[in-house]
Amino acid sequence: AERTLVLVKPDGVRRGLSGEVLRRIEAKGYTLAAVELKSATPELLAEHYAEHAGKPFYGPLVEFMLSGPILAVVAEGQGVIAGFRSLAGATNPTEAAPGTIRGDLARDWGLKVQQNLVHGSDSVESAEREIALWFPHL
Ligand code: GTP
Ligand code: MG
């Protein structure tokens, strides 16, 4: 079945929203294939965010992702890659629609990076690459 990598970012774990994110994934009918609380490293994030290297928000993004534990999740199901991105909502939490994770639970804090609670892979290729990075044993 199709699989995607979901991360509950440090803001989500800090705010106690890990369970809420897992609840929404399961309520939608996707399966949890792996769930693990992790600490990122600069090396892991350099690979995970390779597409963003050199962008103005890259430094603050990596710093934010190192600011606390991350809940790494592999979710499984037909259409889960696009489906989870629908559940997550727009990248910018101010623009994210109500009903989505970011629309309901995140807001703009005026910081240097969008603290938007979750990450979701954006394609089959990204999902396979990211799952291998975060869950090398899977
Ligand atoms: P992810 O699921 O987190 O990958 O979200 P996305 O695919 O909607 O966003 P993208 O991959 O483009 O960017 C990765 C992360 O970088 C975002 O989730 C934000 O935390 C941050 N980010 C992206 N674009 C911007 C931006 O224009 N400004 C700021 N401040 N942060 C950004
Ligand atoms: Mg992305």
Automatic annotation (TrEMBL):
It is found in: Cytoplasm. GO terms for cellular component: cytoplasm. Residues 1-138 form the Nucleoside diphosphate kinase-like domain. It is an enzyme of class 2 (transferase). It comes from the Bacteria. The keyword Nucleotide-binding applies. Its EC number is 2.7.4.6. Pfam families: NDK. Keywords: ATP-binding, Cytoplasm, Kinase, Magnesium, Metal-binding, Nucleotide metabolism, Nucleotide-binding, Phosphoprotein, Transferase. ATP binds at K9, F57, R85, T91, R102, N116. PROSITE patterns: NDPK, NDPK_LIKE. GO terms for molecular function: ATP binding; metal ion binding; nucleoside diphosphate kinase activity. Its main location: cytoplasm. Its cofactor is Mg(2+). SMART domains: NDK. It catalyses: a 2'-deoxyribonucleoside 5'-diphosphate + ATP = a 2'-deoxyribonucleoside 5'-triphosphate + ADP; a ribonucleoside 5'-diphosphate + ATP = a ribonucleoside 5'-triphosphate + ADP. The keyword Metal-binding applies. One of its GO terms (biological process) is GTP biosynthetic process. Belongs to the NDK family. Homotetramer. PANTHER family: NUCLEOSIDE DIPHOSPHATE KINASE (PTHR11349). NCBIfam families: PRK00668.1 (NF001908). HAMAP family: NDP_kinase. This is Nucleoside diphosphate kinase. The gene is ndk.
